[in-house]
Write a structure and sequence with these properties.
The chain is α/β, with parallel strands linked by helices and 172 residues long. It contains 6 helices and 7 strands; from the N terminus they run αβαβαβαβββαβα. A 7-stranded parallel β-sheet has the order 3-2-1-6-4-7-5.
Length: 172
């Protein structure tokens, strides 16, 4: 006996989405600038596609392979390859982008209180073990914190990024 819940088919779901392939929207950018694990980049790439965001990645040799392996959509996605992360962040800030770090900080906004992005926003993610480097913290306009009730102090970087991206995109 069913509870009256009907699952939509993949065709129905696709027909309700944007009618053309994603091109760079430039409104929301996920920037895992100091990644440690390639698997996290692949997972984050999928989330970027889901919320209509772009992904900015550093110039590490293993990044392209990690993205190719993680791109389960098997179609082009919006990836910006940047040079020096600190210089890129400074340039983004100079051009008016809002730079938001996902970091445990005294002034951080709780995720539930984070408003959707209304202008070009770069969401910065740090290294999985050490966070956002101190020299990059000065380039942030703000920080967002994901509250936790368990014993851990942080989430996997791709999980944390996905939560914040959905919130910034106005989908949560």
């Amino acid at each position: 006996m069913t509870a009256g819940i009907r699952v939509r088919t993949p065709r129905e779901i696709r027909s309700e989405r944007r009618p053309r392939r994603h091109r760079c929207w430039g409104h929301l950018i996920a920037a895992p600038l100091w990644p440690m694990h390639g698997a996290n980049l692949g997972t984050l790439l999928r989330t970027c596609d889901a919320v209509g965001a772009c992904l900015a990645v550093p110039p590490f040799g293993w990044v392209d392979e990690a993205l190719a392996r993680g791109n389960t959509l098997r179609q082009p996605t919006c990836v910006h390859r940047i040079g020096n992360p600190l210089r890129w962040l400074a340039d983004e800030r100079r051009t008016g982008s809002h730079i938001l770090g996902v970091e445990l900080a005294d002034e951080a906004v709780r995720l539930a209180d984070l408003p959707p992005a209304r202008r070009r926003t770069v969401m910065v993610l740090g290294h999985e073990a050490t966070g956002i480097p101190p020299e990059a913290l000065d380039l942030l306009d703000g920080a967002v914190e994901i509250p936790m009730v368990g014993t851990g102090s942080s989430l996997n970087v791709s999980v944390a990024a996905s939560l914040v991206l959905y919130r910034l995109a106005g989908l949560l």
